[in-house]
Amino acid sequence: MKQTRREFLATGSTTLIAKAFPFYIIKAKPKLSDEITGHGDFRYRVHQGWGVLDSGKYPVNNCHEMVQTRSRRLFMLTDEPKNNILIYDPSGKLLDHWTLNLKGAHGLTLHDEGGEEFLYITDISSGRVIKSTLSGKIVMELKNPRSEGIYDEFSKFIPTETAVGPNGGIYVADGYGSQFILRYDAKGKFISKFGGDSFLQEAKFKQAHGVAIDYRDKSNPTLICTARMKNAFKRFTLEGKYLETYYLPGAYVSRPVFDGDNLYSGICFGMTPGDYNPKLNRGFVTILDKNNKVVSNPGGNAPVYREGKLDLLLQEQPVFKHCHDVCVDNDKNLYVCQWNAGGVYPYKLERV
């Protein structure tokens, strides 16, 4: 008999959309749920009340992204200026909080640099890209590309995400602005940019919402970039040469998150059958394997491939509204941050 993950361990082992719906908030009290969601080997028990705090003391607006440090602390980024960072332990206990007074804190990347961990934070309200310590001390800030002559005076810069490469180089996704991925060295000196705005050209983006380094082929790391409005992830070399596209019909993907051989992403918007326009409150999570095939959709329908082509992905269980990010912990549980979901705190999806 096949063991569950728990048994095994026990026995020894926006801004197209963001502008259209900028602050559509309906306050709703989260509730506990033991619903099981997901498919195949990636099934989860939903704990909607896992991260709930006193909203008077620790308010959140949109819970944008979350990362886990070596010490197992979970850092969650919100665009509530009173507490941009909430720090949890895996049980949902609040350990600490701090703020940089950012009104549009959006992207959160963790990077280990010689044994010390740093956070890279993007702010869509001010166009800031900040590097800070885990206690919130700013140690570097990238200059706005307009001030450097990288963009002209008419080009928008609204950074949504960062990634840090093997040599410390920084990649910035201008996902709500001019749709470029900008390359910098480890000290913040501009190198080049690639991408740009186009629905039709494969090497360009519509809502380059996320960027991450794919180390699954350790001898040949590459970049995976989000093209949310194209329902796709796009692969590039570290120098910005386009390689290929992974099309996920119906899925308005957020940033790619890697854990082992798998790629995880929140689906912020979905579709309804027969209507190919993005819909509110249709979010779910998607999980791809090492071959970049969808293997599970917590909150969504089971993935089906016909002659190598993936069927339309749709929300099936109304667990989520708009999934903005997924964090995978050391026990392979998931934590889901949501945009425009009534001010809810992160949900925990316990692996079963």
Would you give an account of this structure?
The chain is mainly beta. The chain has one domain: Neuraminidase (6 Propeller), CATH 2.120.10.30. The protein has 2 helices and 29 strands. The chain has helices at about 5-10, 15-20, and strands at about 35-40, 40-45, 65-70, 75-80, 85-90, 95-100, 105-115, 115-125, 130-135, 140, 160-165, 170-175, 180-185, 190-195, 210-215, 220-225, 230-235, 240-245, 250-255, 255-260, 260-270, 275-280, 285-290, 295, 305, 310, 325-330, 335-340, 345-350. The strands form 7 sheets. Strands 19, 20, 21, 22, 23 and 24 form a 6-stranded antiparallel sheet that branches. It has a 5-stranded antiparallel sheet with strand order 1-2-29-28-27, with no helix packed on it. It has a 4-stranded antiparallel sheet with strand order 3-4-5-6, with no helix packed on it. Strand 16 and strand 17 (about 230-235) form a beta hairpin. The longest helix is centred in the first third of the chain and has 6 residues, at about 5-10. The radius of gyration is 19 Å and the shape is globular.
